[in-house]
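Q: My hope is that you can spare some time for a protein that puzzles me. Underneath my words sits a plain record pairing an amino acid chain with its backbone structure tokens. Those tokens are not coordinates but codes from a learned vocabulary of shapes. Thank you; the sequence and its tokens follow:
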Amino acid sequence: MFNIEKIRADFPALKQLINGQPLVYLDSAATTQKPLSVISATEQFYARNNANVHRGRHTLSEQATHAYEQARQTVANYFNIDANELVWTKGATEAINLVANGLTEQLDNDSTIIISALEHHANIVPWQQLAKRTGAKLLALPLQKNGCFDVQACVEFISQHKPSVLAITHASNALGNITDLEPILHAAKRHDAITLVDGAQAALHLQPNLPQLGCDFYVFSAHKMLGPTGLGGLYGRYDRLNSLAVYQTGGEMIETVTLAKTIFRQAPAKFEAGTPNIAAVIAFAAAIDYLTSLNKTNVYTHEQIIFNYAAEKLQSIAGVTVYSNIENNIGTLCFNYKDEHPFDIATLLDGYGIAVRSGHHCAQPLMQHLGINGGVRASFAFYNNHSDVDLFIAALQNCLELLD
């Protein structure tokens, strides 16, 4: 049974008032709220177990090291991967940059990199820079006018251009649209392409089985999965990880150093230079424990019920245009009202305690494709309920009356 009130009680931020109104948090695509267990794990580490990891022989260091590496195993289990296939990073953005930089020596002016207009800037700009460094050609998958992929057209495009690298989102951060990845990844693999999937939005909602998905690399951010900010991860098939050039150099990631040369360790240590964000890693494991304590099917079903309830009510408002694909979505609604600026709508909603995002959502090519300057984004998670939707819609209608 999915007890939404019990779950909401685990998230202290949801209990507060904003501008004298109950907080309705609809910005989980930007960052999720944190359960008490995550907050407690952070406090507990700094209060009792604070020490640097690896090599220390004293008790605190050994305890911190054990908790840190156990956290790696906990997160690896969530994705059904081996612990040595998981690299800690500052977030999904750094993880993509790590891969793009690590591939520099493997590409040249005969190479082709394929991305799409649906991507977050973090999955566009690193590939632009890689193309600039190597002379590789950068192409974008065909995207339908409504912001959805025609999978067959994408497969044909990949077969035509035979990419060396394919980088694609699992779910759009701006629209919430879920990508049908299997045929696209399969087409890329037929040409031995290296495949990277941006899972920043999907990792929480879809809980993907990464070996089954079949990509070479998958990136995610802890703070979009109930965990702390400043931490994320890179999954990479072990042979692919070790084929990448090092991204940063320093302590931790070396085997031996002389004044003449350095020998680097194997992955994942090869990519984890310096003192890591130990507290965040341990707190992230608490977030994963919280997630896995819930029934995956019940969580997804609840999210879809709330999303569909919100979509139906939003689409019934005259003058509102919804850009998200309602049929295949993680729970994000991107919309505009007539010619009103999205910033104005978001600002007015805040007066009612409604937290939404407005702007181009770090997806300017997508906004240009849709022919808009930006939109209002309401993004849902499993801790939202029907009351959140009702308050959001009532506040929105009041705001729109003020704008008319």
